[in-house]
Amino acid sequence: MTLRLPAPAKLNLFLHINGRRSDGYHELQTLFQFLDYGDELDFQLRPDGGISLSPAIAGVPDEDNLIVRAARLLAERSPTPVPGVRINLHKVLPMGGGLGGGSSDAATTLLALNHLWQLRLPLEELAQLGLSLGADVPVFVRGFAAFAEGVGEILTPATPPEDWFVVLKPACNINTGKIFSAQGLTRDTPRIKIAPAFEGDASRYRNDCEDVVCGLYPEVKKSLDWLSQFGPARLTGTGACIFGRFPTESAARNIWESKPSGITGFVAKGVNQSPLHSKLAELK
């Protein structure tokens, strides 16, 4: 039996950096929403106890791959030996895009194997395991749009409008560490209360990484300037992807069809429940 599950993209509808901790991590506030677009993963149990991933991701050895690490981490948590698993990745989300592709793949792996191995670990425990893999993994594990604080792991459910988005991927890959270590990065944005983050459109908020990213990567600024002609546009995460919000699919697709040549991307709908959790609910 092969179990196929989605690993959806996320957007940071805004991203405020409130301070820097003594351990080097940044305190932030952000609003996560999922998209009905993303990677897919196939899981097939194997009797020999091995964990394999195909196709291999160029330049990413297994010990650094979040999918393999998630599977091994969960196997170690099991009180009894578990079967092995073959994982096949259907990758569509760009690496270094700020869409959470690697974190989403890891979360899907945790939830899929918790189901296939019949471990019955609660979501809270899986989210804690996910946090050891990356700060964005818990929101994918929990599966609801959320206002996030701390390093991104303190989550409060949110219900932003489920609008349509044009997402552009400029032709560059952004190093997150380089952005967070940049001297010019804003690190003192005042904290906001949770309630205002839920008040409709988050267009009055910003992404504190945007100015630094645009200064270092002209391709991002070019895409941002172009999409901003049609309404508020913003960087997601540390980029490189840029998104604009539109009320209907037809409005989004009209903009998409006029995009400049040489820019990739997609049109997708914002959703407040992860497509992964909708699929898992069907299996129960």
Looking at the structure, the CATH topology is Ribosomal Protein S5, domain 2
- Main sheet overview: 10 strands, mixed
Q: In DSSP terms, counting alpha (H) and pi (I) runs of 4 or more, how many helices? A: 10
State the low-pLDDT regions, or none.
none
Average pLDDT works out at 93
Describe this structure in words.
The structure is a single chain. By secondary structure, this protein is α+β, with helices and mostly antiparallel strands. It has a single domain, classed as 2-Layer Sandwich (Ribosomal Protein S5, domain 2). The protein has helices spanning 66-77, 101-116, 123-131, 137-142, 176-180, 194-197, 210-216, 218-227, 249-256, 275-283; strands at 2-20, 26-46, 51-54, 84-90, 146-149, 154-157, 164-169, 233-235, 242-246, 264-271. Strands 1, 2, 3, 4, 5, 6, 7, 8, 9 and 10 form a 10-stranded mixed beta sheet that branches.
